[in-house]
Write a structure and sequence with these properties.
single chain; two-stranded parallel sheet; DHBP synthase; globular; alpha/beta; 20% strand; 7-stranded mixed β-sheet
Amino acid sequence: MLLSCDAAALAVKEGDVIAYPTEAIYGLGCDPLNQSAIEKILQLKSRASNKGLILIASQWQQLEAFVELSDPNMLERVRSSWPGPVTWIMPASSLCTELLTGNRPTIAVRVSSHSVVQKLCNACGCALVSTSANISGEAPLPTAEEIARVFASNIAGVVAGELGGLKNATSIFDASSGVQLR
């Protein structure tokens, strides 16, 4: 089922999982403060809980409660690449659960420039969990139809929109060192 951003935001607020287009692939998402929704994503993907997840947002303010900033230069480095297709690993705040961080002291975060992600996060009023829409170890599902077929009634639906045109998943950098990890 195709969803508008407003319908998807309502589903997220009700604790559901949604799928949505990002810069390169479709993502599965939910409210990062809803533990049962996060558990559902991990179960749907058959993803190990120690892998951690990405948080995606339309603006830095939606992420700042999840990040513990001790170095102001880190924020300068990170914000210079946003909004855009760059994910940063940053120190996690106490708001982050072990399922979000993979039991690490860090969290992966991105402020996206993708128009659907921007509209979706604005409609939700918060950042979203973002992980590739696939079964772990398999290729990301390429279309909304494939996502609906694989995840069927286990998600609220797929947000209507096009992928952003990147050929590969977004780059990931360590915010402390600036080193590229992916």
